[in-house]
Amino acid sequence: MNKFIKFILKLTGIAALVYGALFAVFYYDLDGKFMYYIWEPLMIKRFDSMKRQDTTAMPYSMKEKVQ
């Protein structure tokens, strides 16, 4: 029974630490700050430097069929 109580206390302590960490992320909006200051600039840098086909250089040759 003593091992079971120690296990429950250890599990409760781990759960309390996880809850505290998640609360800190929520309270200080750390996920939003991460997305705004770190993730978004990386994605802008990545996608702005991608090579794309120039759609304005393609000829517009849509012929109408007149009957």
Shape verdict = elongated
User: How large, in whole angstroms, is the Cα Rg?
Assistant: 28 Å
Largest sheet: none
How far the N terminus sits from the C terminus, by CA atoms, comes to 91 Å
Number of helices: 2
The total beta strand count reads 0
Helix and strand run: HH
**What is the count of distinct domains?**
1
Poorly predicted spans: none
Give the DSSP E fraction (strand runs of 2 or more residues). under 5%
* Mean of pLDDT: 89
Helix-and-strand structural type: mainly alpha
- Helical content, roughly? 55-70%
Please provide a brief summary of the model:
This protein has 2 helices and no strands.
Please provide a written account of the structure.
By secondary structure, this protein is an all-alpha fold. It has one domain. It has two helices and no strands. It has helices at 2-27, 30-48. The longest helix has 26 residues, at 2-27. The radius of gyration is 28 Å and the shape is elongated. The N and C termini lie far apart (91 Å). 0% of the residues are buried. The mean pLDDT is 89.
